[in-house]
Amino acid sequence: MKKVIIIGGGISGLCSAYYLAKEGHAVTVLDQSDISTGASFINAGYLTPSHFIPLAAPGIITQGIKWMFNSSSPFYIKPRLDLDFFKWVWLFKKSTTKLNVEKSIPVLKELNLKSQHLFEEMLASLDFNFYYEKKGVLMAFSNTKSEAEEHEIAHRALKEGLDVTMLNKEELQKIQPVLSDNVIGAAHYKCDSHMTPNHFMVTLKNWLKNNGVTFKVNQEVKDFTAKNNQIVSVTTQTDTFEADDFVLVQWQLDITFSFKIKFKSAYSRR
Ligand SMILES: Cc1cc2nc3c(=O)[nH]c(=O)nc-3n(C[C@H](O)[C@H](O)[C@H](O)COP(=O)(O)OP(=O)(O)OC[C@H]3O[C@@H](n4cnc5c(N)ncnc54)[C@H](O)[C@@H]3O)c2cc1C
Questions:
Q1: Architecture of the domain spanning 1-43+197-270
Q2: Distance 9 CA to ligand 1 centre (A)
Q3: Which ligand 1 atom minimizes the distance to the CA of 35?
Q4: 39 lines ligand 1 (CB under 6 A)
Q5: Alpha helix ranges (H) inside the chain
């Protein structure tokens, strides 16, 4: 049994806590908030093997720059005058190549399918209950340019072994009669599913509390200590926490902090 600290109690942190607790480890979740709000509670709840195109794709930079300055966008990164920030943007831009997209597609698809499978596994365990339905996702389009794009992605999805059908307007109307008249068709990804994040997060958190996981809320991790190239403790504004292993699962940390962690070998195991 190991003592494990998870930094970040969003969906990634709580799911990591679930599997680590099931394996018998002593788990503590540290979070700067009280773990009751945020993206993991309010997102759309889609589990989408269909979303296998990486964000770092050609053409994303123009869209991405707009998103980066909008705090409610799916890709918000707080802009700042910081060398590491510009370095990160530069590296991101460098990776938006066709070759990288091709290399990433099978990996993302596999990750999405495995993640979806884990939700089904959690549901089947009957440890806690949550809403889950697999009736697919419709990617609708209202002009021929979008239709061609969706067609291309659907074609690639078929090549990746995903269950997708292209629907014309009449076929789409039968499945979803309330769409606007402008919609001319859709790609129906039957492989996709959805759940209700808020309910999931609350019931999972309760299960974790009832099964020995410790929560330390309103604790912002500000630094960590490494010995022999291994992280041995993390420091918050009030305390220092020691553990055998540390899991850093959230991605909204200050970029300088992330770089520092990388430099000091985060994710290292003893
Ligand atoms: C509008 C919207 C819709 C979305 N729809 C979907 C969807 O349909 N399907 C899908 O798969 N994804 C969707 N997403 C994305 C999804 O919500 C995120 O990928 C997911 O919530 C990320 O979870 P996380 O646990 O990695 O991070 P978070 O939920 O952000 O959790 C990170 C946690 O770390 C804590 N933290 C941060 N810094 C520190 C620190 N220094 N010390 C201690 N704690 C810290 C934060 O307080 C937070 O609780 C959507 C996102 C948005 C915004």
A1: 3-Layer(bba) Sandwich (3.50)
A2: 9
A3: 49
A4: yes
A5: 11-22, 39-42, 60-68, 83-94, 98-125, 144-159, 169-175, 197-210, 255-263
Minimal-distance CA residue to ligand 1 atom 36 = 8
Tokens 């679930």, residue located: 18
**In the CATH scheme, what is the code of domain 120-195?**
3.30.9.10
pLDDT band per the 50, 70, 90 thresholds, residue 266: very low
Q: Look up the pTM and report it.
A: 0.86
Task: Give the whole-angstrom CA distance, residue 201 versus residue 35.
Answer: 9
- Least-confidence region, from 90-99, 176-185, 212-221: 90-99
Token pair for residue 228?
Answer: 């022999």
Indicate if the pLDDT at residue 263 is higher than 50. Answer: no
**Could you tell me the residue ranges of all domains in the chain?**
1-43+197-270, 59-96, 120-195
What pLDDT shows up at residue 169? 96
**Given a cut of 90, is residue 201 above it in pLDDT?**
yes
Q: Is 28 in the pocket of ligand 1 (CB under 6 A)?
A: no
Residue 66 CA to ligand 1 centre (angstroms): 20
